[in-house]
Batch of 2 targets.
Target 1
Amino acid sequence: MENIRTISFYSPMKATYPMKSRLLLTLAALLACNLSALAEEVVVYSARNEQLIKPLFDAYTKESGVQVKFITGGEGPLMERLKAEGQNTPADILLTVDAGNLWQAAQQELLRPITSKTLQDNVPAHLRDPGNTWFGLSVRARTLVYNTTKLKPSDLSSYEDLADPKWKGRLCLRTSKKVYNQSLVAMMITEHGEPQAEAIVKGWVSNLATAPFPDDTKAMEAVANRQCDVTVVNTYYFGRLMEKTPKLPLAIYWPNQNLSGKDAGVHVNVSGAGVTRHAKNPAGAQKLIEWLSSDKAQNLYADSNLEYPVNPRVKPDAQVAAWGTFKPNLINVKDAGSLQAQAVKLMDRAGYK
């Protein structure tokens, strides 16, 4: 009976406690892992609109468990905020459009260089900072759009050709105040030198059918309404307009395709990102930027704004691909920033408002 009591009473107690302890330890470990994942977050200052970036960040959180908080605003105010906050900034990443803005952020020491084989592999050299402070994440091409009832593709050739007197009263442009045109002219300074670039811009001004428009869409609408024959725009504006009004007599023309040397190829620019100088979570910030450059994320990132993936392994959205392939200009897009001040002065001298 004594042996039976030992087995029936004491033995289960001895077996139960270790099992409970192991179970509690396992649950505690799982809880710690979950709390750690929930605790990690990356804070992004973004000059891209919320509707373009929130689906991306939601997908990243779902995959990684890392929370992404973001604040949106204009690139200028966001950079001023970073400067004012200094070491106290909550921002881990600055995400913005145009290499000119990214270059400015790097020059103002708002970004830190990072070493990433993933980004080196995913982002072509001409679409990232040589100092590795920022990396392109999507490509936008600034190309020509023409009225298909007034022109044939064979009538067009290059950006430079639009300065020829044969285009007198036939050209529309967006204002020079927009960074996209400042970057375009900055890249032309690299290609041609400042005197020749200025002569080209003066030719454009002489050929304007009307005063410059406030945005690319207005310029294309003027072309569609036969107020002018051709304009210069970012391709995604064309995509948006044609989604809304697909019967407009407009088409894209890829300029500078048959040239060689520095002036060969369509002018391209980027939206991109860098890790902020005083990031609280620089490792997490780098992982997010790397993920945004990955095959799985690139279509999400580029397709949302009808842009081209920066990662050459990723195919563009079907609507974007339908516009045809083109040879891009391979000058490093950093020149869009480093020569921006010269470009602005040049456009002022040329009378480009």
Target 2
Amino acid sequence: MKMRRAAVAGQFYEGTKESLLRRLEACFSGIKRGADAKIVGAVAPHAGYMYSGKVAAHAYAKLPRADTFVILGPNHHLIGSAVAVSKDTWSTPLGEVAVDVEFVEALPRHIIDVDETAHRYEHSIEVQLPFLQFIFGDLKFVPICMALSDAETASDVASEIVEAAVRLRRKIVVLASSDFTHYEPDNVARSNDLYVIDAITRLDVNDFYRRIYERNVSACGVGPIGAMLFAAKALGAKSGELAKYATSGDVTGDLSAVVGYAAILISR
């Protein structure tokens, strides 16, 4: 069995099981937990847990159990295929997480390639796994990282995901891993991010892209968010909700150059 080792344990999140569990407990502290069966998609941040973990917890606190969690993340390093899925088992300090290989093999693979090199150093998907492990224990997932962010690619990726889910009769939840504005003043980040998030919660993919380009918003997971929205709508999604928004300035106190984080839930 091939293993995708944790690339950012001890950096983005704690490197030992005990310390990581303590961090996750702190992230969920004060947040009411309860699965909402209507949720089919979500956006969660992927920064270091000390900065964005509390925001991410607001998304994970509501997720229902799924047969397969499809996690879409940006390819920050631009290594490997433009749209790449992994078949290897992944490991974190909380244990191993199996990829749903049957799902991967059911993908039409018109645009999605199997390419492990694209995932080797990428953190955007990895940092989501401990949250899923903390909530659900054992689970299966499908990791897809995207170096392309245009709407056409996002639509194609979504079509492949939905086709595989329908063919296998899998109940899936699609997660988009993304931070929002990078290194702008806090007031600018909040204004621009909430402008974009409004389009996401209305499930208006065209307006989402329009608003991203209109204000040149430096969200890193535009493609994953677009693909998640296309897939969620195909799965019957009707509405979206902003569960939590914050910036790194809320943690550091430095409002001069912040990164924006959002937990967004997409429901039938």
